[in-house]
Every structure is written in structure tokens, then in C-alpha cells.
């Protein structure tokens, strides 16, 4: 029977299997054959790629080629070793194969080609991904036989792991049961270090025990056999705290400090393995002794272990991932290194030639890793760097931080140009850096208008005192030669090189937000009279105006009397809403994003250009040909 299997390396076989709904049978057949094979490295990699994305391909067969290409192209390559920070270059053994497949397909329409290795490498701990889990489905869970995985909340969702097929909500509830938390922990301010655990259904107090003197326990679980509860939370501001309390008698068997604040717990049926998440890492502990078995840098909002403890499912955003626990314990390379560090998600330079994601400085056109920048990161007791204190320009990258001060890197090669420790900025500062990275506006962040000034990045010299400015009332023009400042019922246009006022745009009400078009020709303003206005910057003339609508994103607040105030700010979401109105354009390329079913659609002119399995917001290169997040970098190919 095995000899009759169609060739896994034949693209036509894969395409027919996906189109006919038989891909799961092909995957299962080859999994059995390769389990007994001694040397089938290329096929193992292709099989792993199909297995990870099986559920997505079953749902969206047209994504077969894109999914396989973007995973196997990078397998065992020099680029993968560079991005993961470890591994060896084996010559990218599948690159020629997948390129031949691409050539044979011809131009079947645009697709999203990855310019970097996948976040998690093939043949590592990641086994499967399931996209489209909605917020109402609750924490992830395995069925009793571990053959089904999903979320069993108010509207259950689940998938058969062997086939990748999504079950109906009714069948999902049947297979998953009711895995809701059996216990809850309640904290009392006067009782730090005390674990008070209640049965959620009956409300009965199960445990009331002093564990230590400085922990705040936020979550709890009861072991399947009812012999103990595990509580977790945080202590000493940063450290995670986990303790096992045996029942009856409420004896503390073990208590450990690990990672950061723990917010999710899981265990196997026997209670011999405990998994915990602090948001940045998953920790595996021996359930009997509390000894640390492994810590893996994986982000997860919630998690669950299979009954036998062999697999772990995590949930992050709307994606469920299934992991091999044995591989996690072996410490295999887990994900791209440095992408989750620093205080920046993703940004292209104005010319699109450079991209930064986390600490990774890359070529914005071909994805090549240029350098890992030693950026400031989490770890500040009272907050970190200012929200907008970083800027990638065409020839430099600027970071303003509370530790090292103002640091400037060369964005061509990632070398550090200068450090000024005398200028230190924290989260209490409002910082806006110009697109060319040579100027910035600074002031203390407050709810009310703030005194701000225009300064030079290189030496900190003050170019102009800007006066009292409302929050989010500052915007540089793309050429960095003009600065728009909202102050009261005016928007003042400053000449940046001279530090002088160039023009004034007067409003009948206080200005609440200002944004500049990507071509620098016009600006949009919002005011407390509920009117949006578009201005010609060269002449200062008003192009047109309209009232705010229900579709315009606004910041809402309420007075003590219950009166509502709606304030417009120039947020990315608000500016996208205005795309094309009176000639105003924020992007210049006309493409927008739409999230649905665990995918991101890149839409232009009412049609989908490409579908991308990205779970976080993507940002676009200036020409709209490339898109990126912390872990993704795509080019729209074959368009």
C-alpha cells in the first residue's frame, strides 16, 4: 500500500490532492512511510510544511503553493541560520525544487512571497497551526483522546488534527466538553503572599494558605486527580511565582520563581508536567518537584497540555499552535532571534530600502539581514522609552531611551554613529522624530497641552520653542522641512531649518489632531467642532471639509454628568479612513488591510491582491509592494 503512494515531491500531486480534498490522506500516508525511513530529509521538510499549514490549506486550497514555498524555500539555508541566530547552512536543498514549481505554475496571479524564513523553523517543535480562532472561544483545549484541538467557549471551534478539517460548533462542543476553569484565586490587598482558591461552580473555599510574603496570585488550576492546586502570579515587581499546594491539608509542596508575571497554567492528566506562560515565554516544570524542565521564548495568551503531556497547544491572538513537548525540552531553535526585542514592531525607511523589525535591520527590498541593533527593551519599573522615540530614516536609525539617551545608527550597515547620554527620555515624554531622523519635537507627556520644543537630533540644540501643544498635535511633512503644530484654534506651519513660522491655518474651534499627506501637498485637521478639514499647505487655503461620521475613529470621553465628548486624533486608523478624500492620501499606494479568518487580505481597488497568514498588523513599504510585521516580510509577487 505504501509503495502506491503518489510522489510527495511532485507539485501536480500536491495540487490535485489539495483541490480534491485528499491532502490529509497524502500527509498521513507519507508520515507513516517516513517514520520508518533512514534518510529522507527533503521529503521530511516538505511533509512538515504541509502538516503545519494543513488546516489552512484544507480551508483555502489556493494557498497551497504559497504556504509550501514560504516554508521550504528557506529550509537549511544561510539566511535561516542568520535569522534564527543558530543552525547550519546546508545549501537550501529545496530551493531549486520550489522554484521549478513556481516556474511551472506560470503567472496565476499575485501572491505573498516571504522575504525571510518563517518565524518557527521546519523540523523544530512546531507541529501544527490553526487560524481563525475568535475571541469568544476561550482558552485552547485538547479533546480527551488529543485528536481534536480548539477552543470551547460560548461558541466552540475545533479542528480534527489528522485531517485539518474544522468541526461544526455542535460537534466541537461534544468533542471538547467543558474545559472551563474549575477554580479561581481571589486576591486581598491586605494578604500578600496568601493563596485563596475557590471552586468556581459551588463557590466553596478550597485553599486558604500563606505561601510567601510577597506574591500576588492571579491564576490557579486544580490537578485532574484533585490532589492539588497550582497557583501563579508575580512577586518583586518582575518575577513570576508558581506554587503547588497539596490537598487535603493545604501543604505547599513547592514554590518557584521563574520568568515574568504568570497569567496562564496547564497540566497533564497525571499532574507530572506543568506548563505556565508569562506572555513572553512558556515554562515547563516537573509537577512533582517544581524543577524547571525547559523555558521556551514563545508568546501565548493561554495554553493547554494534552492528557499524556506529549503536546502543548498555545493561543496567541487568533492562532492556535501545537508544539511537541519533547522537542521543546531538547531546546531546538524556536524562532527568529531579535524580532521580539526592542520597542519597535516594524517600519520601512521613507525610500523603502531599509526595514527594521524589533532589533533586526534588514534590506527592505530583498529581505537580507544587515545587522542586529542593540536597542533598548523592556525592564523598566515605571515604563520604558517614549512611544514614538524611534525613527528609521533613509541613512540613519534614531532611538531615544531612558537608559543610554539618544543613539544614532548608520542604517546602511547598522554601525553605531553616536551616543548622547545627557539626553534621556522616558515614557513620560512626548517625542516626534522627523522622517529624515535629524529633528525632533519633545515635551513632557500630559493629558493637557504641553510646552514643547523643536530640537536637533545630533547635538540637542533647540531650534524653536513651539509653545503649548495638545497631545497628538504635531506632524512633520515628509520632506522634514515643515512642521505642523496644533495650538488652540490654530495650526502653525513651522520652517524647520530656520525655526520660524511660515504660515497659520486658523480654525473656528480648538484643533484636536493633524496629519500630513504622504506627498506633503496637503494636511488634514480635526477640531472640537466635529469637522474634518483638508488644507493646501503651499497656499494655506482650505480644500474642503465635512462633519465627523459614525465611521470615523474617535476618542470618546464622558463628563461626570454623562455627557459624551468625541475627539478626532490623527491615528493611522483615522487617516486610512480618509484615503483619497479631497486628494488626501496617507499611503500613496492605495492598498488597505482587512483581517478575517486568521488571515490578512491586502486589498486594492476593491479586490484582494494577496492573502497573508499574518496574525498581527502589517505595515506597508512606501510603494505598497512589500509588507512587514515583527516576524513577517512579504513582497507581492507575480502581480
From TrEMBL:
It comes from the Bacteria. InterPro entries: Quinoprotein_ADH-like_sf (IPR011047), WD40/YVTN_repeat-like_dom_sf (IPR015943), WD40_repeat_CS (IPR019775), WD40_rpt (IPR001680). The keyword Repeat applies. Keywords: Repeat, WD repeat. It holds the Pfam family WD40. WD repeats lie at residues 504-545. SUPFAM superfamilies: Quinoprotein alcohol dehydrogenase-like. It comes from Nannocystis punicea. This is WD40 repeat domain-containing protein. SMART domains: WD40. Gene3D superfamilies: YVTN repeat-like/Quinoprotein amine dehydrogenase.
Amino acid at each position: 500500500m505504501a509503495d502506491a503512494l503518489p510522489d510527495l515531491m511532485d507539485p501536480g500531486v500536491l495540487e490535485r490532492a489539495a483541490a480534491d480534498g485528499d491532502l490529509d490522506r497524502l500527509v498521513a500516508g507519507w508520515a507513516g512511510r517516513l517514520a520508518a525511513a533512514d534518510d529522507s530529509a527533503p521529503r521530511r521538510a516538505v511533509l512538515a510544511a504541509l502538516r503545519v499549514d494543513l488546516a489552512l490549506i484544507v480551508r483555502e486550497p489556493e494557498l497551497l503553493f504559497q504556504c509550501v514555498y514560504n516554508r521550504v524555500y528557506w529550509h537549511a539555508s544561510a539566511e535561516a541560520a542568520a535569522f534564527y541566530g543558530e543552525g547550519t547552512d546546508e545549501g537550501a536543498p529545496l530551493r531549486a525544487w520550489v522554484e521549478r514549481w513556481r516556474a511551472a505554475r506560470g503567472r496565476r496571479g499575485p501572491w505573498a512571497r516571504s522575504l525571510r524564513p518563517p518565524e518557527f523553523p521546519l523540523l523544530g517543535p512546531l507541529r501544527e497551526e490553526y487560524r481563525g480562532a475568535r475571541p469568544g472561544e476561550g482558552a485552547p483545549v485538547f479533546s480527551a483522546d488529543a485528536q481534536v484541538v480548539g477552543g470551547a467557549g460560548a461558541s466552540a471551534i475545533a479542528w480534527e488534527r489528522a485531517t485539518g478539517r474544522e468541526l461544526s460548533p455542535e460537534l466541537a462542543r461534544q468533542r471538547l466538553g467543558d474545559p472551563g476553569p474549575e477554580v479561581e484565586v481571589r486576591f486581598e490587598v491586605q494578604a500578600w503572599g496568601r493563596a485563596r482558591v475557590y471552586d468556581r461552580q459551588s463557590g466553596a473555599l478550597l485553599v486558604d494558605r500563606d505561601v510567601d510574603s510577597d506574591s500576588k496570585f492571579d491564576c490557579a488550576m486544580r490537578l485532574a486527580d484533585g490532589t492539588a492546586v497550582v497557583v501563579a502570579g508575580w512577586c518583586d515587581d518582575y518575577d513570576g511565582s508558581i506554587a503547588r499546594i497539596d490537598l487535603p491539608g493545604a501543604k505547599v509542596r513547592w514554590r518557584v520563581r521563574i520568568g515574568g508575571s504568570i497569567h496562564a497554567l496547564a497540566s497533564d492528566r497525571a499532574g507530572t508536567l506543568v506548563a505556565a506562560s508569562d506572555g513572553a515565554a512558556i515554562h515547563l516544570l516537573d509537577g512533582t518537584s517544581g524543577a524547571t524542565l525547559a523555558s521556551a521564548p514563545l508568546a501565548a495568551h493561554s495554553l493547554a497540555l494534552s492528557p499524556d503531556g506529549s503536546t502543548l497547544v498555545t493561543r496567541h491572538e487568533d492562532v492556535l499552535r501545537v508544539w511537541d513537548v519533547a522537542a521543546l525540552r531538547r531546546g531546538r531553535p524556536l524562532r527568529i532571534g531579535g524580532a521580539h526585542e526592542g520597542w519597535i514592531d516594524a517600519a520601512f525607511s521613507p525610500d523603502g530600502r531599509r526595514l527594521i523589525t524589533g532589533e533586526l535591520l534588514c534590506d527592505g527590498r530583498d529581505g537580507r539581514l544587515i545587522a542586529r541593533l542593540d536597542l533598548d527593551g523592556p525592564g523598566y519599573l515605571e515604563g520604558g522609552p517614549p512611544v514614538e522615540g524611534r525613527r528609521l530614516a533613509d541613512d540613519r536609525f534614531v532611538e531615544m531611551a531612558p537608559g543610554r539617551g539618544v543613539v544614532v545608527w548608520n542604517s546602511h550597515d547598522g554601525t553605531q554613529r553616536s551616543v548622547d547620554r545627557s539626553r534621556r527620555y522616558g515614557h513620560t515624554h512626548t517625542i516626534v522624530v522627523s522622517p529624515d531622523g535629524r529633528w525632533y519635537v519633545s515635551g513632557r507627556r500630559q493629558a493637557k497641552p504641553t510646552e514643547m520644543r523643536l530640537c536637533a537630533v545630533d547635538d540637542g540644540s533647540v531650534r524653536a520653542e513651539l509653545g503649548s501643544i495638545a497631545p497628538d498635535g504635531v506632524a512633520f511633512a515628509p520632506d522634514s522641512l515643515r512642521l505642523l503644530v496644533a495650538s488652540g484654534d490654530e495650526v502653525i506651519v513651522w520652517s524647520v531649518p530656520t525655526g520660524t513660522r511660515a504660515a497659520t491655518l486658523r480654525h473656528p474651534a480648538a484643533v484636536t489632531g493633524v496629519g500630513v499627506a504622504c506627498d506633503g501637498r496637503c494636511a488634514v485637521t480635526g477640531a472640537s467642532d466635529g469637522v474634518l478639514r483638508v488644507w493646501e499647505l503651499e497656499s494655506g487655503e482650505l480644500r474642503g471639509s465635512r462633519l465627523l461620521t459614525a465611521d470615523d475613529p474617535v476618542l470618546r470621553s464622558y463628563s461626570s454628568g454623562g455627557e459624551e465628548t468625541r475627539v478626532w486624533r490623527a491615528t493611522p486608523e483615522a487617516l486610512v479612513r480618509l484615503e483619497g478624500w479631497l486628494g488626501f492620501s496617507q499611503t500613496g499606494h492605495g492598498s488597505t488591510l482587512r483581517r478575517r479568518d486568521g488571515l490578512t487580505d491586502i486589498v486594492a481597488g476593491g479586490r484582494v491582491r494577496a492573502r497573508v497568514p499574518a496574525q498581527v498588523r502589517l505595515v506597508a513599504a512606501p510603494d505598497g509592494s512589500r509588507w512587514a510585521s515583527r516576524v513577517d516580510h512579504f513582497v507581492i509577487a507575480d502581480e
